[in-house]
Amino acid sequence: MNDLHLFAIYPQITLGLGALLVLGEGLVFGKNRHGLFLITTLVAATFSLAFTILSWKTTANAFAGAVILDPTVSALLAIVSVCTLLGALCSPAYANRHGFEPANYYTLLLFSACGMAFLVSSNDLAMAFVSLETLSVCVYALTGYRTRQDASTEGAVKYFLLGAFATGFLLYGISFLYGATGSTNFSEIATRFAAGNMGPESKFAVIGVGLLLVGLSFKVGAVPFHMWVPDVYQGAPTPITAFMSVAVKASAFGFLVRLLPHTLMGLSDSWVPILSALALLTMIGGNLLALAQRNLKRLLAYSSVAHAGYLLLGVASASKLPDQADAAILYYLLVYSFMNVGAFAVLLTLNSPARERNNLSDLAGLSESHPLLAALLSLFMLALAGIPPTGGFTAKFYLFGAALRAGYTTLAVLGILSSVIGAFYYLRVVVALYMESPTRPVSNDPAASAMAPRGLALAFAVLLCAVLSVELGLQSLPGLGIFPSYLEGLTDFLVATR
Amino acid sequence: MPVLSIILFLPSVTAVAILLFGRGESGASIARALALLGSAAAFLLSLTLWAGFDAATAQMQFAEAFRWLPSWGISYRLGVDGMSLLYVILTTFLTPIVVLAGFSAVERRVPLYMASLLFLETGMLGAFLATDLVLFYIFWEAMLIPMYLLIGVWGGERRIYAAVKFFLYTMAGSVLMLLAIVALAYLHYESSGEISFNLAHLLRTSIAYENQRWLFGAFAFAFAIKVPLFPLHTWLPDAHVEAPTGGSVILAGVLLKLGTYGLVRFAFPLFPAAAVTFAPWLSLLAVIGVIYGALVALVQPDIKKLVAYSSVSHLGFCVLGICAFTPEALEGALYQGLNHGLSTGALFLLVGVLYERRHTREIAQFGGLAKVIPLYAAALVAVSLSSIALPGTNGFVGEFLILLGTFTGNVPKTTYMAAGAALGVILGAVYMLWTVQRVLFGPVTHAVNEKLPDLTKREQFYLAPVLVLIFIMGVVPGPFLKTFKASTKEFLDRFSKTAVLASLPEADASGRAQVSQILSKWKEDSRSEVASADSASK
ipTM for the complex? Predict the structure, then answer.
């Protein structure tokens, strides 16, 4: 238990070293070696992914139990690494165009990834809190990176203030839990409550859990703590929006799953009802609020709220069926990463120095001028809506399957009905692409001439997302190789471990 | 040779080829040629299914299976039996016709149109052929996308509204079915320890009465929307009116049949006890639909809308036939599905022909066309007669069998249902004949109509097979009905009183009591005398 087990944190070390390397390179070679920084970032993320895969089925407890490595952590580490890769691939064209200082940009990106990696593998409340703050501070800064844009600054300030507020709740909750159990270690807290010996101090623990839930609801953007989401998503630079919409979500849900169903299973009577209510509100609220959006970044922001709702339903199910629901959540997070980043990446290819083309009306008639881009964006929208044969369908199938199996029939029915509302606004995008004529002739648009391909990196990101969104739906192709074999162990949610 | 897979994916492969090669100046002609070629090849291949089909068995034939997601028990599993054979052929038969009809009707974005049609064909065929529930669901849902594009891109003025309404209505029903599919698989797992979505395995599961009712409700809801059963039909007139001709033909000809097919393939056999509970209510809704559809059709000023409402009426007959649990009624329902595909498909084609010439579909804009375009008039009269079930046309055979089977059925109050539906037959004749009279006969009231060109060679070419089939199926229904026999018998065997009770688990005593009380109201099984009446009717 007290061994150091350094290998358990190789991915995290790689990401952190990468960030330091970019900083150093900036000092040595000057701040504008964009290509160098990008490659360093990609290499760091790739190595982190490689280390994750090398230790795929390893289980370890490192740093006196503060850090843990198990298949769930490995999967989350892989998702974080992949999101970092995709985020970096989406960045160069946009960063160039807006004159970002690249060295700091990539440093922050890698540091936030490092924080996420630590968060998903932390097995200790203090450890989790520090990692959560590391990632949050980096993401606040990245959100405000478009310093010349008011929206970006506004988003960053909102995010920071509300985030700091949520952090207060989180910390307060942690202190209650510590007070009730005398430990910050998840394993010890778990054994403390698993025995069923609920003393008077368990009341404090329940308060702590409630406060923690409030804090984490802010982080994942659950209704009614979702107010910051649309402004931040809209204000942040689009590559950062893409990155954080998937990576922050994945790491926060990783933490939530580790904390609630695994650590506080003994208290599940107190948090499951709250979580179910949150899930219901979030699924319905997110989908309803997205209906009125005309800006695609805001629309995807509310859609991410709705998806957080589905995932919360998964976490609630995990209280009854930990293994199956965990697997479904992980699978959902993976698929969501590809389809969501894909959608943002297509938007990025449409941007030009003159104007960001983020409104639905900008997309009108795109299928005639850019048939491939229109087809890809439609693919991502249909995947987000959960239409087969895309990965979005498979992910929903697993997740709602787990919820049904766990006995949350009403929630599952309401959730899946709310996803029909969701289909409406995803279809709005397809309507604009295929069924409306351009509001202004494309040739007269000064931006149109600049709508050339935005660099290899971005094109690669789009195609990667498209291929994987479909591949994860079909799954029969050998393709990925890593996840299916891993999933064999975990997604057998039907073959219950009774 | 995996002939089903080849038929299934040939259209999709063609569609991909069209999207890849149908570019530039000659893109439209390449797309048209490829689409015709691909869909015609699929039709010819599907005829070999009929040639090799063994009508004596209810087994799945030409079956294919391979493990797809083994840890989930999902497999890629196709097969064809008496219930699906002719529907598969109907699909492959109508698609080339629609492709041909689209040669002149569609001028904008031809490659995308043809590709959508062909993807749609794969979706429909997949839904008819799949014998794994998840695979079925994937095709069922994926089918929405091309149909959505067909309505939304090439439709009329309110096309976007209609397309989105179509999509959301269907999706709302089908997501609940998805949950029911998963729940069914769990129940199967709990009773057998085997995880599977294979229809043949799930059919062996005995499910408690309470669960049967919920699951049947979810399945029947999804299929009733597709049929569409009154009062879930409101998407249909919008979708039909706004869709381009090809879309309407496919929608009426095949898509609606998937609703009735789903009922007989999945909802009824999987949950027999719930089916006998709800069947009287379904037939009541069906009869209301028959009469309501006919009455609303009667007052439509727009021909296309009239045909759309007539579909509501005709599909009510099919559901009525399914809910009667007699061989005649069930065969009649299956047969009527084919008839409706042909006659309503042809009606939409003919409306499309008129629309291409005059760009209006208002009945008041026409009159006396029989003198100007005699060939067209002849075709319209023939198709209308089939639609109102004149003896000698296919429609007669289907409606007669349904009414006969419903009259002699065991379900309580079934004679009233049959009487109500018979009223619908009369109303059907009224609106159809009245329309034909207003459009074709009398003096030519509008000067523009005097110069209308008659059917072109191409139009004659694609209408002729439908017209010929209408009469063949009316005069010699034997070969067609023969294919249904074994499968309908297997279906009805699940609904004998003992079999229905056997579908409930031993432990479910209260469910058994409730079901046997419902069954006690049924008339004694008169299967033997019905069988003799059956042979006499042919």
Answer: 0.79
